[in-house]
Structure formats: C-alpha cells, structure tokens
Amino acid sequence: MIILWFLILLTVIVFVHEMGHYLIARLNGVKVEVFSIGFGRELFGINDKYGTRWKVCFIPLGGYVKFYGDANLSSNLPDDKIKSLSEKEINETFHIKSLKQKAAIVFAGPLANFIFAFLIFLFLFLVKGSPSDIKYYPIIDNILENSAASEAGFEIDDKVIMINGKQVDNFLDIRDIVISNPSKEINFKIIRDGNIYDIIAIPNPVELIDENGDKYINGRMGFSAKYETIYKKLTLKQAFSKSLSDTFSYTIKTFQGITDIVIGERSASELGGPIMIASVASKAANRGMESYLFIMAIISINLGLINLFPIPLLDGGHLLLYGIQSVTKKIINESFLKYYYGMGMFIIFALMILVNYNDLIKQLN
C-alpha cells in the first residue's frame, strides 16, 4: 500500500504540473506532441484530435510534455526541417513564439502546482473547517523504543486515570507532572482491557537549553497521546483568504528551509527523496483522506517551488535563459547550452544521489 499511495500522489502532482504547461502552450497556439506521465517504455496511451499522444510510461517518477518542433537543446528546428513545414505548422512550434509566451508556458507548470495546493486547502477548509484547537486524551497512542515508558511496561491504548493519586482528565496533566519529575518515581493508575493496573515509572532526565542559553532538566517518558483536532467552520470568503495565506506561508517556509540547508544553517540530511515521500504519503493516508490531501498540497508546493530554482533543465533554468535573452537581445548559442544543460544534469544527478542516500540511512536507522 505504501507504493500505491506514493504513486497516486506523485502521478496527480506531476499531471497537474504538466497540465499547466500543456494548457498555456495550447492557449498560445503551440501544438503538444506528447503528454507523458512517467518515462521509458510506453505502457498505454491514446491520441486526441489535436495530435497529442497522451501516454503512461513504465517508470512513474515524473513526466513531461513535448512541444511540436522540439528538436535540440534550444527547442529549435534545423533549417532543412523548417523549409519542409507549412506556415501553419511553423506557427505551431514552440521556438517561434515570443520570449514572453515561452516564459508563460514554462512558468505555468509550477504555477499549476501552487494553484492545486490552494484548491486543496480551499476544499478542506470548506468541507472540514480550520483547525482551532487540539483535544488530548489520556490514552497512550505511541511508545518509543528503549524509553522510560517501554521499560515501565506501558502498552498502546492504556488509559491513564490517575497519576500520583490525582485524577487525570487530560493528557496535558500527565505531561506537566512528568516534565517536573525527572528521575523520580511516578505512580500511574491505568485501565487496560477493562482491568485496573498500577505502573511505577521513572521519567528519563533530558537536558534542554532555553532561549537565554540557560540549561534545565525535564522529565521524559517517551509516550504520546491520542488526540482529536477541533475544527472551526469557515465562510467561503474566510476559506478563500486562509487558503491563499497558507499556500503563501508554506511556500515561504519551504524556501527558508532549503535556503538554510544551502547556507549550512541546517543539515543536508533533512532532504528526502522518493522513499521519504512514500513513507509520509502512506502514513498520511492511514490517518485519513484529509491528511493525505494535506500532504499532497504540501508536496505540490515543494515541486512548484523547486522547479522555479534557476537550475539548468528545470523550469527555473529555462526562465533564467529567457531573462538573459530579453536583456542581451541575442539568441543563446548551442555550444553554451550543451555546457549549461550538462551542468544541470550533474546538479540534478548529485541531488538524486544525496536524497536517496538520506532516505536509505534513515531506513537503516
């Protein structure tokens, strides 16, 4: 099921991205020869009345659209090929379009990802509402290995009813007592399978540093509680406004996170690849469709933003070239493009190795 949820998520996001390119290309009179989900050998596909081959390929890790006339790195046709085309066919090629039209077509892919994320947020806010509070139940939902809780004998679904002789109504009551009693015995009274048990546990001491640099010790049991998110209903106007705000907010947070990694303020080990995405998607799906859609929106934002980075071969790399052309008023020669896109392939290949290495290390740990 992990692979299934991953493939659904990736296919939808890639389809949205490529559909952005496709729609704006068609709007600008560019013929699209191929709309592909995945790479490699074609599994199945159909041709539409506009001459586009819609297909699904064997390697489902990405996708692309191929514009009419894409024949080399600059999307130009050889002179002998141009001479064999009619005026109508020439006008349907990508390379004949203005820089503004080309930029619009390229930018449309990432933009579609941002719009898609916005629409997911809007749907969730209208159907479910906006999270306004979290209610924590005194019921154990997760226990860390080799923690004070596992050593004391706690089990998942244990319900804590008393702690040190005091009645418990909320997991936050448990947290407060645990935090304030590092390395001290705590008496828990729990209900398990309808029976009442007493458990004596000693929270592990954990050294923390506050914002002023002062050190202090907290207790930690190593378990977490079941909780319920409380939602507040929103009007259409409120949902629209919050969807825009959240899309912008998560975009900025993603950009800041990547920037921190580039300048060395955060570790590159935080970057994840297909394995991490598959794991996150599967866990979200297990929590419910709401969580799965939310993760889909976040990853859609990630894809849109990363594609805007000025890295050769990515949409941002193409936009950088168009910006240079608009300033210099000169066509970039084929020799430079070979080195430019070669550098892009190296960067992307290196990033692929890094994120997959990080994924494997996390799985082994």
What does this structure look like?
This protein starts with a helix and ends with a helix. The chain has eleven helices and ten strands. A hairpin with a 2-residue loop joins strand 4 and strand 5. Helix 1 (2-27) packs across helix 8. The protein folds into two domains: 2-128 and 250-364, no CATH class; 131-230, PDZ domain (Pdz3 Domain), CATH 2.30.42.10. The strands form four sheets. A four-stranded antiparallel beta sheet has the order 5-4-6-7. The protein has a two-stranded antiparallel ribbon with strand order 1-2. The mean pLDDT is 87. Helix content is 50%, strand content 24%. The longest helix is centred in the C-terminal third of the chain and has 31 residues, at 334-364. The protein is α+β, with helices and mostly antiparallel strands. The radius of gyration is 27 Å and the shape is elongated.
